[in-house]
Amino acid sequence: MDMFWAHLIKVQPDPDPWVVVVSALAALAVVAFRTPWQVSRGLITIAHEGGHAVMALLTRRKLEGIRLHSDTSGVTLTRGRPNGPGMVLTALAGYLAPSLLGLAAAWLTEQGRITLLIWSVLLFLVCMLLLIRNL
Fold it and tell me: How far apart are alpha carbons 120 and 108 in whole angstroms?
């Protein structure tokens, strides 16, 4: 297990410049063109709904589940007081989550922690898979 953790936090070497350029062009193509954007925007919804879910748990609300719809909308179902700071923070967190996750990913990439980034994304997606109620 120690080897796993050591490998997880190990700093990877910088990628070749061509890898960076191709990755940037691929990211631009995904958001600039209609078809790939329609396919990929579900990932933004997952991050958005995940933000609601994490904040609900942090503010001690009961998380009932998450629903994702085919039109890429979604809803996070929580139970708790209908007002107060927990409800407000839970409502706001979904809008901040995609940007904060992107910022965290950029920071981990800049630090050379690509393996940690990939495993974190996989863990987040598995957790979301367990919470999504309409699969």
Answer: 10
Domain ranges of the chain: 44-131
pLDDT digits (tens, 9 = 90+) for 16-36: 999 999 999 999 999 999 999
Q: Share the mean pLDDT of the chain.
A: 92
For residue 69, what is the DSSP state? -
Q: Is the pLDDT of residue 14 over 70?
A: yes
Please state, in angstroms and rounded to a whole number, the distance separating the CA atoms of residues 133 and 90. Answer: 19
* Residue 72, Cβ density class (10 Å: 0-12 exposed, 13-18 middle, ≥19 buried): middle
H runs (alpha helix) in 1-135: 2-9, 17-32, 34-58, 85-110, 114-131
**Rounded Cα distance, 135 and 130, in Å:** 10
For helices 114-131 and 34-58, the axis angle rounded to 10 degrees is: 80
Cα angle for residues 19, 22, 25 (degrees, 5° grid): 145
Between the CA of residue 45 and those of 6, 38, 56, 93, 110, what are the distances in Å? 32, 12, 16, 13, 25
